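User: Run a structure prediction on this.
Assistant: Running it now.
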Amino acid sequence: MHTFCNEALEHRNYIKFLERTKKVQIKNSIIAAIGGGMLFFTLQLLYAMAFWFGGYLRVERVAEDGELYTGGQVIAIMFTVIFGAFNLGSAIPHIKALTEGRIACKLSYDTIDTKAKVDPNKKGTKVDKVSMNGKIVFQDVCFSYPTRPESQVLKKFSCEFEAGKTTALVGYSGSGKSTII
């Protein structure tokens, strides 16, 4: 950054933020290492238990439907259980996404099913099309959303939009431009 001679200040800020990031990454790396160690410890423990139980089945001559278990069957069962457990574990983040989707769907349907406060079938006043010229006038309009009545979006807003002319609304975020439209 070469603007206004702020190179030294920006360099110090950059180093400060790098140090914060470094501390967080070291902490995350330690957590990941402990988690990985526990994962592989559990995996090796499962291997040991599977081989022990497979050996038990062979030594005790346990049979299923009159046939003894073979070494190949023991290994196939072991890998089936381990792969199944890993795949079940990898499905957990997706279950969270499905749950969030169901919640969003319910909120959407609740909004759709909400009864309108205005009756669309009620007869209203007819507007004379001849007297309409396309001019839109706002005069001392005050507005706040029903969900946040303490935050007034428009405060005595007045403006005229002439028919056939292009008008731009300019203002900072939250100043009511979209509300006016």
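The chain has two domains: 7-113, 136-180.
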